[in-house]
Write a structure and sequence with these properties.
Order of helices and strands: HHHEHEHEEHEHEHEH
Number of helices: 9
CATH architecture of the largest domain: 3-Layer(aba) Sandwich
Number of strands: 7
CATH topology of the largest domain: Rossmann fold
Structural class: alpha/beta
Number of domains: 2
Shape: globular
CATH class of the largest domain: Alpha Beta
Strand order of the largest sheet: 4-3-2-1-5-6-7
Helix content: 40-55%
Radius of gyration: 21 Å
Largest sheet: 7 strands, parallel
């Protein structure tokens, strides 16, 4: 046993470790080939199973728009109510609605879709606090994932547009994932709508002043990859205008 492994074992015995500390120590431990092969093989098959389930359940859902936003937004908040209104309008305009499957803005989106009899899809994720699918998702359109990256593939593959409500790190991650894929032409362009000028204003100012003007890390045309709106009607209008402009029907 080498000195590094001896030290790690000593740390384990010295005190009780939190889950985070356990993960950090495990990253430094040397594993034999059988451990590596068995664990990695299990992960590969688990990832494959999540892709297969997603493809099978979502292949025939038709045109949908994904609504992103915070899981912490309460039903009495204006953004919850606006997300619900946006989803209802999307259904009336011929789209189904996809959400991240949880509470807050995600619940509002599924609730709005359900209220108009539209397709209500939930792509849930297993989290330490056991997020559960909300009650407004169609039972046959709820999928729960272990891996964020598989879930992201499903959002991008089966959405004809993203409407991004105010949210936290997860919402920002999903927003910049979509922007990056479009910017680098890994996927085709589709509309991205940010709702709430006050909420997004500071970020947009930073993108323009720092990323574009000062550092030149993006191009001027990259600012055209998204629209910022204030109302539910404006948000749905951007989606409709986009497909009308490109002479496309939502049913493709």
């Amino acid at each position: 046993m080498d000195a590094k492994q001896t030290k790690l074992d000593h740390i384990r015995k010295a005190r009780d470790l939190t889950d985070d500390e356990q993960k950090i120590i495990q990253a430094f431990e040397e594993k034999d080939w059988n451990e590596i092969k068995s664990y990695d093989s299990w992960v590969i098959f688990k990832v494959m199973s999540e892709f297969v389930e997603g493809f099978q359940k979502l292949a025939k859902i038709g045109p949908c728009v994904t609504v992103f936003g915070s899981a912490r937004t309460k039903p009495d908040h204006q953004y919850y109510q606006m997300a619900e209104e946006i989803a209802a309008k999307l259904v009336r305009h011929g789209y189904g609605v996809i959400s991240g499957g949880g509470p807050g803005i995600m619940e509002a989106a599924n609730k709005g879709a359900r209220s108009e009899g539209g397709k209500s899809v939930g792509l849930n994720i297993i989290l330490p606090f056991e997020q559960k699918g909300n009650e407004y998702i169609d039972p046959d359109k709820l999928i729960t994932f272990d891996y964020f990256f598989v879930r992201k593939v499903m959002f991008v593959k089966y959405s004809q547009g993203f409407i991004v409500m105010p949210g936290g790190f997860g919402t920002l991650d999903e927003l910049f994932e979509a922007l990056t894929l479009i910017q680098t032409k890994k996927i085709g362009r589709f509309p991205i709508v940010l709702v709430g000028k006050d909420f997004w204003g500071g970020l947009i100012d930073w993108i323009k002043s720092t990323l574009l003007a000062d550092e030149k890390n993006i191009n001027e045309e990259d600012l055209e990859l998204f629209k910022v709106v204030e109302t539910a009607s404006e948000a749905v209008g951007v989606i409709d205008e986009f497909y009308s402009k490109y002479l496309l029907s939502p049913n493709f």
